[in-house]
Amino acid sequence: MYEWWVLLHLVGVFVFLLAHGVSVGVLFRLRKERDPGKVAALLELSGTSVKGFYAGFVILLVGGFAAVATGHRWGDAWIWVSVVVLVLASIAMTAMATPYYRRVGFVARALVGGTEAVTTEQFDEVLKDSRSNSVAAIGFAALAIILYMMVMKPTFGLGGGATAAPPAGCQPSTNIQVSASGDKFNTDCLAAPPDTAFTIVFDNQDPDQHNVAIYDGSQNLFRGEIFGGPKTETYSVPALPAGTYTFKCDVHPPMTGTFKVEAGAAPQTTSGT
Description:
single chain, elongated
């Protein structure tokens, strides 16, 4: 059910950005347009996107909170930071844009009606009000912050995915166990003996899609199946030559660590707990 709520959330984001994009397009166009009739028409177009804007806003919030509930993600700090940024940016942009649009619309309609109380220079000054730039700046800054939160998923030191200490000595094992929780692996070091096939028991405790892949630089040596949890899969990995490599999640690259292939004591099990 988690995936369906995420899908609903993404639909809401799409509707929200689509409607908001109309308003932003009008905002930039108003700074160049000087025909009062066209300005009035642009404002009317922007007004028609308001319903879509609020509908998308409600859908993305409903889908997002439902996904958080079903995926047990209440402790993920990045989610709440994103919500706060979204709400504050929306309030600030609405508070600044509404009087700007209202003033521009009033003057444009007056000019269309034939008034001579407003000169062309005054109309130009109204359209170039600095608030239009401020509204756009807030919107782009908020979008950049939210995208960063979605991709990097920072914890801000508040838990919700803290990484457990790596196994002592990162000893080679033919039966490696590793888990993922809160979009973090439980260790930053895994090891296997050289020239020997081994298994990786991967316990994905997240509803998010994860896997374990092994890389030598940019060259992929092994790629485990990507799956959502809670679920455990056992990967069979062919023998690798001695060396120091990298393991990571292909879906979330920040989930990464060192993978050592080296001789050691008798093979041990790398505990994921």
